[in-house]
User: Fold this.
Amino acid sequence: MGRRNSVIVAVITSIVIGVSVSIAYSLMSSANVNTFSGNTVRIGYFPNLSHATALVGVARGTFEQALGDEVKVDYKVINAGPAAIEALFTNQVDITYVGPSPAINGYLRTNGEGLRIIAGAASGGVLFVVRADSGIDSPEELAGKKLASPQYGNTQDVSLKSYIIEHGLKLAQYGGNVHVLSAKNSDIMTLFLKKEIDGAWVPEPWGTILIRDANGKIFLDERDLWPDGEFATTVLIVNTEFLDKRPDLVKKFLQAHVETTLWINGHPEEAEKVVNAQLKTLLGKELPVDVISEAFSRMEVTYSPMKSSLLKFADEAYELGLLERERPDLSDIYYTSLLNEVLKEKNLQLIK
Assistant:
């Protein structure tokens, strides 16, 4: 159970979304598009609890304050990882919060040229929830069931598929009898209520929502699969061209990112209220206070990129034979120099 290949599928994902990523990056490169304006920084994030740093930073205006009055900040709300990578490679965003699987895939599909991970954002906060009446009490009972994830090829999608494979089951697309469909988090709720799916691997607060409002029960908290319950759920990535051209803006954004992380951890109750208000704005519905609190309790907000967990993802992919040729070289996927500059200035422990 300790083995995790949630991003295994940096290579499964290479098949899943690699083609579109490569095309997007090729189009950007061949067109030699340069839309990096000194007056604009474009930020991507999801309406998920694991993107709490972004939600709070947007609400409190922290990013605008750090970047200065002369810089315009444009926000793009994205549903899941593959869409975020495509947005990064088609110059719709410069910096985005995203799950580790799409980040690895985007890096590999561009031969290490397209992006860099510059910080972490969250650990934990992911649940595998099944309907209470689904009859699923063990991994073996997933056979013949219909399951869901937020988007084909996103971090939860590959985590779910990896879990299925780990337990000796086969996906329907490869001749097995475990069906996995992709749907927006809000649509997964509807599918649960209509009993059209038996379970879903989702980020918070959606896991708690399914439990409270759709007769769901926790089948697995992904923290249980990791040593000390710690693993990268969300990271912060930047387009390498933007990083090369505007490191000053990237550093200022990281200052806001670190400050927001510290504020959230120092003011948890107030942070929950801010996040809830933002989710109401984005999703059209405010969540009960106890739902937000319960969901928050399963997650840690952090600026640490948790390098070891991401590298373990890729190593396990190789060891499980999911790489066709050689172990992936992720030696340059991290660029933490600017983050460490920020941490040093704040007398905080540096990232190794």
